[in-house]
C-alpha cells in the first residue's frame, strides 16, 4: 500500500509517515469527498479553524507541574485545587459536547501535515478522490481538524492513505508539535487522559 519513499516506519517507539514524525491514536475520523477544483476560500477557512483547534488542543495538553505545590508559596494549594476543578469541568463539558454532537466511530489513525492513514469504513473512497480528512482530536474541542487532500491508496484491508495539501506553516508547525509531544510522552512512558 505504501509506494517506495512513502513507507511507514515503526521503530521501537517512533511513528513515522511520509518520512516525518506522525501522531497516532484511535480517534473519530471521517473522509468527505470534495468537488474539483477545491475552492481556495474553503481551504482558507479550514486553515483559520485548524489553527484554533490545534491551539485549543495545545492548551489542554499542557502538563501540570509534576512536583507538589510549594508549601511556602502563598495560595499554591488553592491554585492547585482550582486547576484540578477546572480540568474536571473541561472533562465534563467535553462529555456533554461529545454526547450532543454525533461523531464518527473511533478508528486507528496516523497522520501528520503531509498525509494520513486510517482504517476506512465501507464504502471506501476511490484512489485519486479529493476530499477533506476530519479527525476529532479531543472530546472537549467541538471542531475537528480538517485537512484537504487526495486519496493515495486503499488497501484490501480497508486501510486508507491520503496525501494532504500543505495546511499552512502555522498549522503544520502545530501538527508537528502535537506529534512530537505524543512521541515524547510515549517514550517517557506517561499517558495523559484526553480532555
Question: What's a quick, concise take on this entry?
Answer:
By secondary structure, the chain is α+β, with helices and mostly antiparallel strands. It has three helices and nine strands; from the N terminus they run E-E-E-E-H-H-E-E-E-E-E-H. It has one domain.
Q: Can you give a write-up of this model?
A:
With 195 residues, this protein is of the alpha+beta class. The protein has one domain (9-62, 75-188). It is 34% helix and 27% strand. The chain has three helices and nine strands, in the order ββββααβββββα. It has helices at residues 40-61, 76-100, 169-188; strands spanning 9-11, 14-17, 20-21, 23-33, 106-111, 115-119, 130-135, 145-154, 159-164. It has a six-stranded antiparallel barrel. It has a three-stranded antiparallel β-sheet with strand order 1-2-3. The protein starts with 8 loop residues before the first strand and ends in a 7-residue tail after the last helix. The relative contact order is 0.23. The model is unreliable at 1-11 (pLDDT under 50).
Characteristics:
alpha+beta, 9 strands, 34% helix, disordered N terminus
Instruction: Kindly state the number of beta strands.
Output: 9
Secondary-structure element sequence? EEEEHHEEEEEH
Kindly state the percentage of residues in helix: 25-40%
Strand content: 25-35%
Ends apart, CA distance between termini: 34 Å
Tell me the strand order in the biggest sheet.
4-5-6-9-8-7
Give the biggest sheet. 6 strands, antiparallel, barrel
Overall 3D form: elongated
- The DSSP helix count reads 3
**Category by helix and strand content:** alpha+beta
Spans of at least 5 consecutive residues with low confidence: 1-11
Rg calculated over all Cα atoms: 18 Å
**Overall structural domain count:** 1
| Average residue pLDDT | 82
Quaternary structure:
single chain
